[in-house]
Specification:
With 446 residues, the protein is α/β, with parallel strands linked by helices. The radius of gyration is 27 Å and the shape is elongated. The protein folds into two domains: 253 residues, Vaccinia Virus protein VP39 (Rossmann fold, 3-Layer(aba) Sandwich); 179 residues, 3-Layer(aba) Sandwich (Peroxisomal Thiolase, Chain A, domain 1). The protein is built from 15 helices and 15 strands. The longest helix is centred in the middle third of the chain and has 17 residues. About 1% of the residues have low confidence. α1 runs antiparallel to α8, α6 packs across α9 and α11 runs parallel beside α12. The structure holds S-adenosylmethionine (SAM). S-adenosylmethionine (SAM) binds next to loops. GO terms for molecular function: acyltransferase activity; S-adenosylmethionine-dependent methyltransferase activity. It comes from Symbiodinium necroappetens. InterPro entries: Ketoacyl_synth_C, Methyltransf_11, Methyltransf_Superfamily, PKS_Beta-ketoAc_synthase_dom, SAM-dependent_MTases_sf, Thiolase-like. This is Ketosynthase family 3 (KS3) domain-containing protein.
Length: 446
């Protein structure tokens, strides 16, 4: 994995400024989503003041950073404030030492902007996030960093910093790219917004700390890299440092910048349209095809407490659109059916509506949709359940018969029977199919 060069470095002027950050001013947008029983991971946690702050809102907090020295400082600060439910360890965001689906929330504050491979980092964050969990990211947009009085030295500071970061293959405009990177990491339906940071006399301590930190950092942190890369010369760095001091000395000075911030649910609902293989002209060992698939991570299907019928219908429509067939061409659908009264009834209704929409041409001449499920046999073991669903559908499709839902004794009374009786069968018995090549669907939630 990438061995990135961290543009700020861990000079005391950098770490001290980071240590003044709080959850309330750096992760405000996440706070309403936190719950007492959550386990939260803060990646690239630095000296850990934000990490420690999260402990007020959730049960356990883990901070990781790839710098041993900064983790040692985070641990030391923990000694001063108490450590219940908080731990720090050295680890890279590219290779997190945690099992899949360990955390309810995974957060990265001002970290992606320093990475040469932000998408790889997001994939790793996604891996350790639980189904239904939350991934949050926030990064600055350096070109928006502006102040008054407008000093040429501060314009130079911005240019030198951005050029140095880019020389390190990092992106100082990261806040503009979060949505794109998340999509490339296969995290869709991102809730993106921006927030501003303002330094003014309203908070004298923060205003001075910001300016003094940058004056020092220009000489001792990114400035040394700028010299090494030939991006700036010594007198230019002195000019930048003096500009920051001049700015700090002016009580009417202001400085602001914009951050991009967003969160996404780690859950998703997926619809796959499958077609049996081994028909004429195809290789003998081909079982079947993924004819189309769609995923939604808006969080609207999320959570056991609030499944969303429309979100499921949307992904089914998208998968059908890709396959270039209509819902009426699908004979049966393997459902997620996790045995919960509300989830299962909404899923059945969504299937009936998406595959046999009332009022569409030929719907009355089409056989009702078979709704089947392997789940009572295999349980809800995420990938295992998904794979068994797909194999069951493909094999059933090749045999032109579907195995019924095992153990189906009584139908969930909350399922919209009127809708389903007309349009769908909840299969407690074997179902015959029209053709072995008929399309079938599979709906997976995680
Ligand atoms: C700008 S600081 C942000 C620190 C903290 N999140 C905050 O906002 O105060 C970026 C942090 O990311 C860490 N970092 C950089 N590359 C990393 C990587 N590959 N894995 C983990 N941490 C990394 C740096 O050591 C640094 O502490």
């Amino acid at each position: 994995m990438a061995a990135d060069r961290y543009t700020h470095g861990h000079h005391s002027s950098v770490v001290a400024q980071h240590a003044s950050r709080t959850v309330e001013n750096c992760a405000n947008f996440l706070i309403p989503h936190l719950q007492e029983d959550f386990a939260l991971l803060d990646v690239g946690c630095g000296p850990g003041s934000i990490t420690r702050g999260f402990a007020k809102y959730v049960k356990s907090v883990t901070g990781v950073d790839n710098s041993e020295s900064v983790i040692a400082q985070a641990q030391k600060a923990l000694g001063e404030t108490g450590s219940e439910g908080i731990e720090f360890q050295t680890a890279s965001v590219y290779d997190l030492p945690f099992q899949d689906a360990t955390f309810d929330v995974v957060y990265a504050h001002q970290v992606l902007q320093h990475l040469s491979e932000p998408v790889a980092a997001l994939r790793e964050m996604r891996r350790v996030c639980k189904a239904g969990g939350l991934i949050g990211v926030k990064d600055a947009i350096y070109s928006t960093m502006r102040g008054s009085p407008a000093l040429p030295g501060i314009d130079k500071w911005r240019d030198v910093y951005m050029a140095t970061a880019r020389q390190n293959k990092a992106e100082p405009e990261a806040g503009l790219f979060l949505k794109r990177w998340l999509r490339e990491a296969e995290l869709k339906d991102v809730d993106y917004t921006t927030s501003t940071v303002t330094y003014s006399s309203a908070n004298e301590v923060a205003r001075k700390n910001w300016a003094e930190s940058w004056a020092e950092r220009t000489i001792h942190s990114f400035g040394t890299q700028a010299l090494e890369y030939g991006i700036a010369k010594e007198p230019e760095l002195q000019e930048v440092a003096s500009a920051w001091k001049q700015w700090a000395a002016d009580p009417e000075s202001v400085f602001l910048f914009v951050n991009g911030e967003c969160y996404i649910r780690g859950d998703c609902v997926t619809s796959i349209v499958l077609k049996a293989g081994n028909v004429e002209g195809e290789a003998e060992n081909e079982l079947g095809y993924f004819a189309g698939s769609a995923t939604n991570q808006s969080g609207r299907r999320s959570h056991l407490a609030a499944p969303d019928c429309l979100a499921l219908q949307e992904v089914i429509h998208e998968a059908l659109r890709q396959t270039q067939i209509t819902g009426l061409d699908v004979d049966a659908v393997e459902s997620c059916a996790d045995g919960k009264i509300l989830d299962d009834s909404l899923e059945a209704t969504a299937f009936a509506r998406a595959y046999r929409p009332q009022g569409t041409l030929n719907v009355d001449d089409t056989a009702p949709l078979g709704i089947i499920s392997a789940k009572s046999g295999v349980g809800n073991q995420l990938e295992a359940a998904g794979l068994s669903q797909i194999l069951k559908v493909i094999l059933g499709s090749r045999a032109a018969a579907f195995h019924p839902t095992p153990h189906l004794r009584i139908v969930n009374p909350h399922i919209d029977i009127e809708m389903c009786e007309r349009n769908a069968i909840l299969a407690g018995e074997s179902l015959d199919f029209r053709l072995p090549s008929t399309y079938t669907g599979s709906s997976l939630s995680r």
